[in-house]
Fold this sequence. Notes:
The chain is of the alpha+beta class.
Amino acid sequence: MSYSNLSWMNFDISDEQKNFLERVDTACKSVRDHETECYLAEKTNNMIVPEFGKIGMLGCPISKKYGGLGYDILTYAFALERIGREGNSLRTFFSAHVSIGQMVLQNWADEEQKKKYLPETVSGKIIMAFALTEPDAGSDPGSMTTKFEERGDDFILNGKKHWVGNGTFAKVMTTYARGPDGRISAFIVDADSKGFHAEEMKNKMGLLSIKNAEIRFENCVIPKRNLLGTKGKGLSIAYSALIDGRLSVAAGAIGVMKDCLDESILHSQKRQQHGSALAKKQLIQEHLSSMILNIESSRWLVYRACAARQKLQDYVEGIKERDQNWQERLNREDREYSDLRARADRYAAIAKLHTTNAAFDCANRAVQIFGSFGYQKTNRAARHFLDSRAITIYEGANEVLKLKIASLELGDKYQAY
Ligand SMILES: Cc1cc2nc3c(=O)[nH]c(=O)nc-3n(C[C@H](O)[C@H](O)[C@H](O)COP(=O)(O)OP(=O)(O)OC[C@H]3O[C@@H](n4cnc5c(N)ncnc54)[C@H](O)[C@@H]3O)c2cc1C
């Protein structure tokens, strides 16, 4: 009989971590009203950095060595789950700043770069972003046309990125460009670099309190010390960042579903039609039980994906401690690293695909339960509905994730994208 050994997964957390999550809960409550105002006014919520900064959430999974809390991937996911209840807009800030921002530096930067940037990102002095997507290279970042060349002590970048979350105010971001030999490299870019331009993208359907930017690099000057990782390995860095990005979206989606359920229960118990509460109607209960099913199935997938990602993290940290040339070692064929990374990638893709579809379904059901009251942006279910449309597109559009999941099972020669 074949079976999956699940003993490597442990979802226990300490009292200290529980206390931290309680502080996250308090911070979420303290920004809730302002978040609603900002969403309706399409403004950035300026309470996020001070309120979440003071409890350490701006550096939750970042090592204590750089000022972070040094929490594991699962604790960070629990925090994002709570934040997700306030909406995908608020959670997206953390995905961009922490998951595909700071964590990319923590994972791939050299010591000097980490010391220079990470402490200020934890304090909130520097907000981060991730600039990969281009107008003509979305699901296929390997076809990017942003270019770099070397000039003396600098790299010169030319090209355009778009949809960059936090991009209007981020002081630092990672970006990705193709060199003269055709290979893609990763860079740390300071927003005050010569030739860097950021412009807000307007007319979004949802995610209204988070800002996205179009970034133009016009002979943008980046010092050579800001190369991230090994030259030519940029796409691998971007894809590893997307594992963390997908996990963050998936964890937040559980919170979205929980809020849709809570709001729906409250409303359906209060609202009377045809002589009794909506909550007594069997068809309304069908909506509620579907939401509960979505939440419970999503939790399992996300926590399991976190455990797989943690295993990868622990392995890489061990190598970093033992081997100064760890980047070269990982770039060479390190079988265990490849296997652990493929597993983390697989579970993160499955979790993101399922939870984002489930969150959109929950939001849709919640709007339906609210009836006409759910058709205004002042209603939480309406906002979840609008925002959840984006999460099936970004961090890997769901069609592409389906193909990825299938080809990881079938083998590379069946890759359909
Ligand atoms: C709100 C928002 C925030 C974002 N934030 C960021 C950010 O911070 N940083 C960043 O770099 N990018 C960001 N993005 C960009 C996002 O990652 C891309 O939109 C996404 O990767 C899809 O690319 P695309 O929009 O160009 O769509 P396309 O790649 O053109 O895809 C369009 C449709 O075709 C499908 N498709 C594509 N290829 C295939 C295939 N081979 N087979 C079948 N179907 C396929 C897709 O699934 C999708 O449904 C953001 C996007 C949004 C909407």
